[in-house]
Amino acid sequence: MTATRQRPFRRLLSTTVCLVGATAMVAGCTSNSPEESSSSGDGGSSNAASSNDDSGDTVTIGFSAPAADHGWMAGITNAAKAAAEEYDDVDLQVAEGTNDVSTQISQVETFINDGVDAIVLLPFDGAALTPVALKAMDAGIPVINVDRQFDSPFAARSTVLGDNYGMGVSAGTYICSQLSDTPNAVVAEIAGIDSLPLTQERSQGFADALGDCGLKVSNRVAAEFTVESGEEAASNLLQAAPKIDAIWNHDDDQGVGVLAAINNAGRDEFIMVGGAGSANAMRSIQADDSVLKATVIYPSTQAADGVKMARLLAQDKAMSDLVEVEIPKQIVLNAPVVTKDNVDQYIDSAFES
């Protein structure tokens, strides 16, 4: 983060305009028939001949991600498989999900030895997987890095990321809009694992957005992205804070436990905003049957976008909605707020907690 930061409300607006629905952008860029071009540059000139979705040379893509022991992570793998199934020219080789770094390194080495055309990799540990990703790149196999970045810019051809800071900004901006008539509002935060940079980024964005409307976090606890930890952390929070006006919970998986604790305590004087965008959270928002009134998306479609980008790279194509003839080096997906008013736009692509 630079010393001079944009005001959160302005930052959120620019994020929405510039990065809106990068998932949709990738899907659109692989389905639009581009205008004819006289350009003879390589790396994307083939787009002028036909739609990027037209069947081409079969490409083999290796995919590796951590174990699906969390709803969001399961959603990542399921979405990647679904994206590959859209194409008859994609052979997706899916390695078994693992939280063992050595096993994941071995999986990537197998992809390299098999000579796959591209690798989509969500590393359990970005630093630990950097050397083998570099090895793949040195072998001429483009790597699409998903969610957790490598230590070297040379370890990936392209990176697809969610916006953790933006999640906090979105959550804080929404709460500001709901509490505009409550200047001394008590705002609470149930974070994820505090030692993780992603949690720190989410909390910073939240604090910055609240500060823009004169609010601050009055009570904060941390959980561990699990149902059990969410229930425990929320119980502690509710005991410590007899009055609350709004809560932001960073993660909808741990939010199952958070809502259980809230129901057990019989508390309903506040609104709650979730995080990540699970289907069960959206169904609750849709039904308006709890304190949960919104959730902020952290897309579980990142690897699906990675698969589509890997296909384009392997077939020497680019994103046909862009003038640029190369696949972007990095895409940061938007972090929109889902409410009862717009939930129908997002629920079909949501993951199950």
From TrEMBL:
Residues 1-27 form the signal peptide. The keyword Signal applies. Residues 29-61 are annotated as: Disordered. GO terms for cellular component: cell envelope. One of its GO terms (molecular function) is carbohydrate binding. It is found in: Cell envelope. Keywords: Signal. It holds the Pfam family Peripla_BP_4. Residues 61-317 form the Periplasmic binding protein domain. PROSITE patterns: PROKAR_LIPOPROTEIN. PANTHER family: D-ALLOSE-BINDING PERIPLASMIC PROTEIN-RELATED. Belongs to the bacterial solute-binding protein 2 family. This is Ribose binding protein/LacI transcriptional regulator. It comes from Modestobacter italicus (strain DSM 44449 / CECT 9708 / BC 501).
